[in-house]
Amino acid sequence: MSTDTADSNTNDNTALQSSLQQLQEHIGQHIIGQHRLVERLLIALLADGHLLVEGAPGLAKTRAIKVLSEGIEGDFQRIQFTPDLLPGDITGTDIYRPQDGSFAFQSGPLFHNLVLADEINRAPAKVQSALLEAMAEGQITVGRHTYPLPELFLVMATQNPIEQEGTYPLPEAQLDRFLLHVKVDYPSAEEELKILRLTRGEAVDNAAQAAPAITLKQADLFAARQAALGLHMSESVERYLVELIAATRQPERYGDDLAGWIDYGASPRATLALDRCARALAWLQGRDYVSPEDVQAIAHDALRHRLVLSFEAEAEGIDADTVITALLDRVPVA
User: Fold this and answer.
1) Taking a C-beta distance cutoff of 8 angstroms, is the pair 116, 68 a contact?
2) pLDDT at residue 203 in the model
């Protein structure tokens, strides 16, 4: 590769990083107190994956993905999941045309770039299955026909941790389809004061309808994905990442307590997710290499929904985050 070509690639990469950082700052101006959620949304975009977000109502989950959709070249659709929802309500269905006796496919709300699946655990298994096919395969099937979804396709599904009555919890094997499981918490008092003033200001001058600071083209997002994939990751960091996942399957190597807490460890899909997300995080922060700190920073969100804990752990009040923290403390950095 010539020097001019290398310089051009570097400049393009720097411009892409700057654009994503500007987008992150723009979203942060409208979503106060949820820096982690905003960052994870962008990581999911860069890593071509989907998010499961858990948090109480009113924590700006819907607002976050809506503001993101306004900053990129793409459209947004929200689906409220309810117990009476049918698969065809989200995928679309064949409509009979009496004028010529034929059927025509009417696409459903999944045919958008960014989809919010609100309270996914309120929908029955068949609806969840239809959504998960879309997430995993980038397509939906209706009758005998399969229809591709947009190339840029991100699902953010939400769960309400408070109300569990009348819900349909996602099985562990289906949870594994999500790239990240992000938990959001209440903002601080200072952040809530800023939210109050921001909302009041929007009501007064309609600032919510203002044009976003930047609109990223889909081609730029795809280029950013390739740039993040091309980041340098040393062999020692690769081995550290793999050893973290292996430790969830052979926890006895790192303590009898861990062995008693984990029934089933993470699958190879977790390895791939941790790799993609660590690269995306490093790239988003403007670096050209992946460090062990990047792996550690994303480990909880990438692994908490992939571990099956034992009854002993539940009886002791041990959750997945506690287990992951213990693994990070005990697995040495290569």
Assistant:
1) no
2) 81
What separation, in Å, do the N-terminal and C-terminal C-alpha atoms of the chain show? 32
- Beta carbons within 8 Å of 211's beta carbon, 6+ residues apart: none
3-218 CATH, one of 1.10.760.10, 3.40.50.720, 3.40.50.300, 3.10.450.50: 3.40.50.300
Q: Residue 118 in contact with residue 81, Cβ under 8 Å?
A: yes
Tokens encoding 13: 């990469």
* Architecture of the domain delimited by 232-330: Orthogonal Bundle (1.10)
Residue 54 φ/ψ, nearest 5 degrees? -115, 125
What are phi and psi for residue 212, nearest 5 degrees? -65, 160
The pLDDT assigned to 143 comes to 80
For residues 184 and 58, is the Cβ–Cβ distance under 8 A? Answer: no
Longest dimension (CA), the chain: 71
Q: How far apart are CA 191 and CA 292, in angstroms?
A: 31
Distance in angstroms (rounded) separating the CA atoms of residues 333 and 240: 6
Q: Consecutive sets of 10 residues in the chain, 334 residues long: mean pLDDT of each?
A: 59 87 89 92 95 89 90 91 92 89 89 94 88 90 88 92 72 87 92 89 66 75 94 96 96 94 94 97 94 97 95 94 96 88
Residues pairing with 180 in the sheet: 51
DSSP letter at 227? H
Q: Among candidates 65, 112, 69, 63, which has minimal Cα distance to 90?
A: 112
Task: Write down the residue that tokens 């804990």 correspond to.
Answer: 309
